Automatic annotation (TrEMBL):
Any GO BP: L-arginine biosynthetic process
Protein family membership: Belongs to the NAGSA dehydrogenase family. Type 1 subfamily.
GO molecular function, one term: NADP+ binding
Organism: Dethiosulfovibrio peptidovorans DSM 11002
Pathway(s) this gene product operates in, as recorded in its UniProt entry: Amino-acid biosynthesis; L-arginine biosynthesis; N(2)-acetyl-L-ornithine from L-glutamate: step 3/4
EC main group: oxidoreductase
Catalytic activity: N-acetyl-L-glutamate 5-semialdehyde + phosphate + NADP(+) = N-acetyl-L-glutamyl 5-phosphate + NADPH + H(+)
Protein name stated in the entry: N-acetyl-gamma-glutamyl-phosphate reductase
Name of encoding gene: argC
Active site: C150
Length: 346
């Protein structure tokens, strides 16, 4: 068993890591780290995990840094993870960082999209972007892996097969997102009394996760927009992408491109053509799982296309993909601990 440490364990992504790892056959948690709650039992923040961790208390950061481990997960806020990641890397301990600190390869891009100068730009090229569906081979034996943005993951898995065809003229994405995307600390926009029963557009064109989409699928920014809409869900992301193609194509071309891209990936699936109500994925069909589903409909003119993708933002959009990447880093089967079926109805 590989011994792992989870930083940021009191947050939503950290709690999801603990849930996954409680049933993992290859990793065991030796410390759950929380700066705000050292000494408190884990289940005070995650009551659903009381049976898994009845006596485990949070470690302080100072205590955690003294412990031996085989790999570390950092479920920390953006801008707050890189120092700890560098500390572990200098000691030869592999790191999976769920924050945005190592997702972008270019320090100038990081500064532009996150509004900060990166504190360790020399590590950006070393870090592997942690989406196994694009970087499986690079993740095997990697020492530093970035997390993935939940919206970026949904967009990339929906668009990457099409982007590779060279037929994309422009893409207008709308991301419909649940409240857990905002994290455990409420704000005026994410606090339940203000957010419930709403369909609020909180970003019209340029969410920072768009930077990952640009980097990973190779389409220029001028061809892409990303609108963010808060909807009545707790977990889940759904992308609706209105795509304009450079020339008319037949639907068979799309089926071939998507089937080829998805083949061999255990958590990436293509929706069936029929029945029609299952052709475009609903996030409810993947909640609680590490799965991402994609579907599409081509307009009769052959040049306009609707692509829809869906995933659970706390699983495939964060902690599930992080564990999948860690499995590959440690030489384990990438599906270990992640074969939980979706919850439905939810």
């Amino acid at each position: 068993m590989f011994e792992v440490i989870v930083w940021g364990a009191s947050g939503m992504a950290g709690g999801e890591l603990l849930r996954i790892l409680s049933g993992h056959d290859g990793m065991t948690v030796v410390a759950a780290v929380s700066r705000r709650s050292p000494g408190k039992t884990v289940w005070h923040d995650h009551p659903h995990l009381r049976g898994c961790y009845p006596d485990v208390v949070y470690s302080s950061p100072e205590e955690a840094l003294k412990l031996k481990s085989d790999l570390v997960f950092l479920a920390l806020p953006h801008g707050g993870a890189w120092r700890i990641a560098v500390d572990y890397r200098e000691r030869g301990i592999p790191v999976v960082d769920l924050s945005g600190d190592f997702r972008l390869k270019d320090p100038a891009d990081y500064s532009r999209w996150y509004g900060l100068e990166h504190g360790a730009p020399e590590y950006l090229q070393e870090a592997v972007y942690g989406l196994p569906e694009l970087h499986r081979e690079d993740l095997v034996g990697a020492s530093l892996t970035s997390g993935v943005g939940c919206n970026a993951s949904c967009a990339i898995l929906g668009l990457a097969p099409l982007a590779s065809t060279g037929l994309v003229e422009s893409v207008r994405m709308e991301m419909r997102v649940g409240s857990s995307e905002a994290g455990a600390s409420p704000s005026k926009g994410s606090h339940h009394p203000y957010r419930t029963r709403t369909m609020r557009v909180f970003e019209p064109f340029r969410h920072r996760h768009l930077a990952e989409v640009i980097q990973e699928i190779g389409l220029p920014e001028e061809k892409l927009s990303m609108t963010m809409t808060a909807v009545e869900m707790v977990r889940g992301v759904q992308m609706l992408a209105q795509v304009f193609l450079t020339e008319p194509i037949k639907e068979a071309v799309l089926w071939k491109a998507y089937r080829k891209a998805i083949e061999g990936h255990p958590f990436w699936s293509l929706c069936p053509a029929r029945p029609s109500h299952l052709r475009l994925p609903d996030p409810r069909f993947v909640l609680g799982s590490n799965s991402a589903s994609v579907g599409f409909v081509l307009h009769e003119d052959g040049k306009r296309l609707l692509i829809v993708s869906a995933l659970d933002n706390l699983m495939k959009g964060a902690s599930g993909t992080a564990v999948q990447a860690a499995n590959l880093m440690l030489g384990l089967d990438e599906t270990t601990g992640l074969l939980t079926s979706p919850l439905y109805p939810a």
